[in-house]
Structures are given as C-alpha cells and as structure tokens.
Write a structure and sequence with these properties.
Order of helices and strands: HEEHEEEEEHE
Structural class: alpha+beta
Mean pLDDT: 88
Strand content: 15-25%
Low-confidence stretches: none
Largest sheet: 8 strands, antiparallel
CATH architecture of the largest domain: Beta Barrel
Strand order of the largest sheet: 3-4-6-5-7-2-1-8
Number of strands: 8
CATH class of the largest domain: Mainly Beta
CATH topology of the largest domain: Cyclophilin
Number of domains: 2
CATH superfamily of the largest domain: Cyclophilin-like
Helix content: 25-40%
Number of helices: 3
Radius of gyration: 32 Å
C-alpha cells in the first residue's frame, strides 16, 4: 500500500467517523428538544388544571322552575293562536326585565315575525320589520347561560357584538344546540307551540304573522 493510498483510507475513515458523530449529536439534540417540549406541555397542562381547580364550579340551572304568572309572557298571534312563554329571570334577569318593560309599554303589539326559517326559528320584535331595528333602550349585556336551544326555547337575537341584544327575539322550532352560550336564552314556550309552528315562513314572509298583542299574565315587578 502506497503512502497516498494509506492517506486516502485514513481520510475516508475520519470523514465517516465525523459524519457518524454529527448524526449522533443531531439525534441526541433532537431527543433533548422533544423531551423539553413534552416537559413544557406537561407544565402548561398542570397550570391549566390548577386554574380550573381555583374556579368555582358552574351551576347548571334547572330545566324547569315553579311557574310564576308574573314571568309568563303571553303572545296573541294573528294566526289565531295564544302562545304562553315562561320567562327565566333566574338565569337572564336583565333580558327578562327588558321584555317586561317593553311589553308593558305595548312595544311588541303589531310587530311582525320578519324572519322565519323552516326547521330553525321564528324571529320577531323589530319595529322596522327587517331585522335592523330595536327599542330606544340601550343594548343589553349578554347573559349567556346553560339553558339549551331546544324546541320552544326563546332566545334573544343580536348582532355580531355579544352585548347587542335589545328587543328582538327568536323561538326555536327544532334543537339548535350549537347556539348554546352564544345567545341568551330567556325562556321557553309552555303552551301554544302548534301556533309557533304555524307562523308564516320566509325571509321575509309574504304574509307575515303578527303579534296582535303581548302582555304579562299577571302584573308584577
């Protein structure tokens, strides 16, 4: 073996050893990075768990409460039906108070259900009749709660802002649970759901159903 051949062999062996060392170092570095990432994730999970433990457990409201006539909203519709709605001031006191205030002023009398989507909901409570109106009262702070958007649920309509509900409301035809905690549920139909189903459909309806009169079943605060 000549000196040049020997030199080339030693050089090749050195390069192979260096490459192997680099590969090993890279693998070790990658493994350490993965371990550090796992440790960071575990630490973050512990912090989140600790924050959850500090929070007070959320109390789910009862599905029904004793009937109070001062919190029963009665709508006389132009389709000939009477709809009774139990308002839930235990979970949405600000919104219920608004409905009572406007009802006692006669605000809802003569207003149309201007947006009625089959299988979804009937929306009303807009004096403009096109979904852009409301009362002269300021918009309400959201009172999102755990009451679900099931059949007959009554919820407050709003714009993009969570705190923009005012006077408009909608009655749900079929469950829409994806709306839960995104809109404020204020009550549920307890009588006359067939007349809700019969509200004229359309956006807007050709011959809209009208709230002939709205009143509270009994006077009260």
């Amino acid at each position: 073996m000549t000196f040049q051949t020997l030199f080339r062999s030693v050089l090749a062996l050195s390069l192979m050893t260096g490459a192997a060392g680099t590969s090993t170092a890279y693998a070790q570095g990658k493994g350490q990075a993965e371990q550090m990432e796992k440790a960071e994730r575990a630490a973050k999970a512990r912090e989140q768990a600790e924050e959850l433990r500090k929070e007070e457990p959320r109390k789910t409201p009862p599905a029904s409460i004793p009937l109070d006539p001062t919190n029963v909203w009665v709508l006389q519709l132009s389709n000939g039906g009477t709809v009774r709605i139990q308002l839930r001031n235990d979970v949405a006191p600000g919104h219920v108070e608004r409905i009572k205030l406007l009802t006692n002023r006669g605000f809802y009398n003569g207003l149309k259900f201007h947006r009625v989507i089959p299988g979804f909901m009937a929306q009303g409570g807009d004096p403009k009749g096109d979904g852009s109106g409301g009362s002269t009262e300021p918009d309400l702070q959201a009172e999102f709660n755990d009451l679900p958007h099931v059949r007959g649920a009554v919820s407050m309509a709003r714009a993009m802002d969570d705190n923009s509900a005012n006077s408009q409301f909608f009655i749900v035809f079929m469950p829409r649970l994806q709306l839960d905690r995104k809109y404020t549920v204020v009550g549920r139909v307890i009588e006359g759901i067939a007349y809700v189903d019969a509200i004229e459909k359309g956006e807007p309806p050709a011959n809209p159903t009208v709230i002939v009169s709205a009143q509270m079943e009994a006077a009260g605060s």
